[in-house]
Amino acid sequence: MAVADAAALRDELQRIGKQARRASDSLRSMSSTVKNAALLEIARRLRESAPLLKKENAKDLAAGQAKGLRGAMLDRLELTDARIEGMAVGLETVAALPDPVGEIESQVVRPNGLRIAQIRQPLGVVGIIYESRPNVTADAAGLCLKSGNACVLRGGSEAIHSNLAIAKIFVDGAVSAEAPEHAVQLIGTTDRAAVGEMLRLDRYIDVIVPRGGKQLIERIYDESRIPVVAHLDGVCHTYVHEGADLAMAKSICLNAKLQRPSVCNAMETMIVDAAVAEAFLPDVAAAFGEAGCELRGCERTREHIECAEATEDDWTAEYLDTILAIKVVDSLEDAIAHINEFGSHHSDAIVTDSYSASERFLDAVDSATVYVNASTYFTDGFMFGLGAEIGISTSKLHCRGPMALKELTSLKYVIRGSGQIRQ
Amino acid sequence: MAVADAAALRDELQRIGKQARRASDSLRSMSSTVKNAALLEIARRLRESAPLLKKENAKDLAAGQAKGLRGAMLDRLELTDARIEGMAVGLETVAALPDPVGEIESQVVRPNGLRIAQIRQPLGVVGIIYESRPNVTADAAGLCLKSGNACVLRGGSEAIHSNLAIAKIFVDGAVSAEAPEHAVQLIGTTDRAAVGEMLRLDRYIDVIVPRGGKQLIERIYDESRIPVVAHLDGVCHTYVHEGADLAMAKSICLNAKLQRPSVCNAMETMIVDAAVAEAFLPDVAAAFGEAGCELRGCERTREHIECAEATEDDWTAEYLDTILAIKVVDSLEDAIAHINEFGSHHSDAIVTDSYSASERFLDAVDSATVYVNASTYFTDGFMFGLGAEIGISTSKLHCRGPMALKELTSLKYVIRGSGQIRQ
After folding, report:
1. Are A199 and A161 within 8 A, CB to CB?
2. Does the domain formed by B236-378 have CATH 3.40.309.10?
3. Confidence check: pLDDT of B108 > 80
């Protein structure tokens, strides 16, 4: 890229950042009535514009095919009528949720009479960097608008026509409902250098939420001067304790692995207590086999079932596929140690009827979401009753697990006095 | 540095990181009884070791003098009996505070019967990078221990003997109370490259809290792969509204500027409404003059008082000294716009008896702490009733304002089921 182009790109990103900051200044005090009206108007316009959206999407699909994208990638890229309806319903759902902005989290009166409150406020400007699926444009922008945040969106180049069309509907709908024009801005260039420039806008953007592959997220961690809330991967475990109801354990393990293997909350490693290995493994392995799921077991697993041998790499693998690693352990403590060492702190479950084992597991497993007797596949904003999610955090700062409206806010100290000074 | 040295340093930091992670695994479920006993034992040993601490501190002071450190720097470095007593009392205060770990923030029962709770948990491992003042070693380590976090401390090279002595007392006291040996680790080398290695320990350290000058913090933002909670600077404002009680305004402004000019919550710019400029400025300027405070005013300020002319740089300056910038504005909105553009989002106050002006100011000023009719000098953990603070955040993610026990935790989802699977 020529020096002049680099300078022009930097100027463009600076302009976008400034506009976002200004928009966030008015969004901060905008009433829920206006924000909800904007969301409903945008939903209406998305439905009305389905033919246009599909026409723009067709350009992306054609370019993708020409570039040789595979089936799953093309599928993620496609905007069907059902997916457009899904975006509209998503916005209506978000409009119906309570507005977290302005909630008082706490208030104390200090001995000197100062009334110190903590009040929930928008983060400010949220930068979202994502790949392929164009519906993220509407989902993320809707959550940001409702929580009073301006957003700067950077979608994948393969979805640029679809994203631009969705963003235009968003802006037109927001403006017609008297929300600020720059509440939602999509970076129009597909130049890869734009991401680098975006990550340096620490004066204007308050948080970066990346959604995408590990490589993208690693790059963002490396380059960003802006705080990042991200999930790196989902290496989720289910531990079948010696006190488990084995029928329940089978049902939960099959669901956690097979219901949707391609998502981050799917189980990747099943841990089985040695005391129930013989009673459990052959039966569940047969069921996995019937479903076409490849099994890779540790040495002790292979004493009970025939399967490939798991290597060290399998314990940290996020297959996102019909492959399952299996480990046999001697104790609850060994299971906990394995999960804390090799897992990704996303979602982990124990199946047991032992009260003390369940409490110990919940305490000691250091993950964003820990379960007793349920499938890890439940970890998402919809299932948790949050209405939607902008991502799932596996870091510990700010928020863990699904990131939705409340997680797009933080607490500001508001202090009312009557002339107090400090000695 | 030779390649072999660099590799040895990296190994050493990796070892420290691993030890901290392991310690945090046991601290996570450690009872308040044990943590409080450790804090009280450490306080006792600090008092008992005052002669030793002063002896070690004398080495740092001598080295500092030899290096030509100035008075204020030497003063910050010195461990007096009062400061040692202050560290001990600080630990006793923290021991007496409620333990945030295990608090249930919320619990819902979903239609499918899943009980979804959010429970407060330690962040894990906290890395603290700080300069000169050795008492930070005890303050920060005490807050981390109480909140169930392991910590890795990196103090300034000028305080290395003092820091090592305090850390040793900390570790000995903790171990004697059956807390883990590696709950608190001080990096023993003064090699500058150790900071770089520390900032790459993203597998082991969950958050970096820097305390120090702007240059240090900028470097950390640039290099860290670990999330950072920091305050860059404290450019705090007091806005004297046309509806202010001018006697109260004078008292608050003098306190905010002069009570302790060297701290981040001191006022750096005073904003005065044009409607009260003539009634207020000459009187308050005389009082500032008597106190030896230099004034730098905008053009309109200089219509009312004699003072130096403020330049654009003065609006963003953190003087930390007896210098005050003054700006006259036409309206509340102009004051808000100035604060949001030039301030550092730390602490800002309005003095007014107008209800609508106070509400608008509290809503619209985008700072960690906003005040009506009180001095910004109140912004700190002690004054807010938090017992202590590990730093003051001016970023919006995770926490804003004083960072104490609660801010050293985050919320983990704990989900109890009875065999639920998801369709």
Report:
1. no
2. yes
3. yes
